[in-house]
Amino acid sequence: MNSNEYSKLSKEISYALRHAPWEYELELDDLGFTPIEPLLQSLREIDGCQAIEQEDIEKMIFNSPKKRHEIIEGKIRAFYGHSIPGTIKKEEAEPPIYLYHGTSPDFIDDIRKNGLLPKARQYVHLSEDINTAHLVGTRKNSSPIILKIDTKKAGNQGSKFYFGNELVWLSDSIPSTCILFMD
Fold it and tell me: What is the pTM of this model?
């Protein structure tokens, strides 16, 4: 597989594990894992994927600059980004002092009023660095606003943080009083 094919595979698997496992006849456990074999069977029904093997998925995960998935003991899961009903359980972790969130200027008034909420996702997605937050924000607007989150203050106000991967942190919500609106 070439890098373009790995990218397409990553998007397909992300969609299956994050947003529509039922379309692939998958059952996710409470940690978001599903046996890899049923996923492979479903993927093999897609044009161009008939010969896919577990090794292809392992190479995709290894070579991906964004660590979105993991395989453990014959099961696979997406680390974050779920929009499926129910909540994928995460283990609380101690975040860095500051985290960042990139968003569209169109959402700033709502965020000032209500804080950061997961909306259609299960968790609010936060970045460890400004560059990643900016990249994420450009998906919503070509000139995103970067928000700086005081995690200590947020934790004191009841926010919980969960490790997503080396660049992404998750939270149930962030009060607006813990957000510095950077322009």
Answer: 0.67
